[in-house]
Amino acid sequence: MNNRIKNLNSLPLKAGKCVIYVMSRDQRVHDNHALLRAQQIALENKLPLVAAFNLLSKSGDRAREHYQFMIAGLRHVESDLRAHDIEFTLFFEDHAVGLLEQLNKLQPAAIVFDFSPLKGPINIKNYIADNADCSVEEVDTHNIIPIWIASEHEEFAAHTFRRKVHLKLINWLEEPPKLLKHSIAIKPSLRPDWDRAAKIVQKIDTNGTTINYEAGSEAALAHLKEFIKTRLAGYAGDRNNPNIDGLSGLSPYLHYGQISSLRVALELTHNHTPLLFREPRLAKYEGQPTLGDSIDALLEELIVRKELADNYCYYNSNYKKLAGAKDWAKKTLAEHEHDDREYLYSLKELENLNTHDGAWNAAQSQLAKTGKMHGYMRMYWAKKILEWSPSPELAVEHANYLNDHYSIDGGDPNGYVGVLWSIAGLHDRAWFSRPVFGKIRYMNYNGLKNRFDVEEYIKKWLD
Fold it and tell me: Which residues span the domain enclosing 403?
């Protein structure tokens, strides 16, 4: 596990009263290397272990429904931790200064964070590490291959990253240790203030979505097992048809860390050796796709694509802006920024489904109603925002807002990378030049019709 650990300061363990794990991105008890590391330090030094979650009063454009799902999952975390005699508490600090004050009240001998590549969490962890008087560590338990092990720089595209993943993956597909009962208690005992949390949640703007997912790690594992049993075999052939329930539906659980990518991969590869040294056949199959094809296709999404998104956001701080695009993409978009656009839509018009395009309206409707949008439609959705915006910069801004505000898994590296891929060719190559898009890959309504019954999709989500 040592390669998952990154020291954020050079201070040694001090004579404190506990070890604190600051849970953030990985909201689970099992398969959590950050929690395991904190327990290791605590047991070696005969100290109590405390897990804490800091609830922000506002998190970007995230909505009340997202907070409610998260809080429901955290209640399961508390219960699971109690079963292991580990204390759980909530902090309510919007600034790193206040968070450090709360941590210091518990007199920690060491502090352990889980990993996020996003700027907000990085800034908080760096402040704590620079100003705490004890050892501060970070553990990447979100990625199967720790971000700093997978690559030491921003990867150009999936094919450059895939080679590294395939060479290293076999060394990381192993069962994590089990969390132990923690016999050393902190006194006085701690209790999270769920009433205060509920009041914060009620002040967050609602987005009106209905989240049809049960929160928590137990529900996440049950969802995974049901998918493997009933839909995995058809995944490779069905996943690009928005009219078929062919996707895994795991993204909410992965986003909130209620299940680990490692657990998903271990369940998928239980009776299957994944493709490690050649690219999965993701586009076309000779005959009917096999179960192995589906497993490899899902592993490609789960590991290569998902962890490539973390790689990008970790090494490029402009992940929410057009400035984060490659030079060739920025150049071609700038050359076509003043091209005539047949339609221009404001953010409000997009949000209210007031466009001429039934397929786009249906995709936004699916997102607004359910908090989810089919992945194939998400590409079309974002590309049309580029086509209907006065500038690519504004297109990126509007796409990120809509995704973060409505999608249950918004505010995530996958979302930011998906927007830049669609609008600014990130991790893609230059295509033939055309108005507005320049050399960015193009999608249109006729292309949808060649893939699936788009009228059926429109009827489902707009009627």
Answer: 322-462
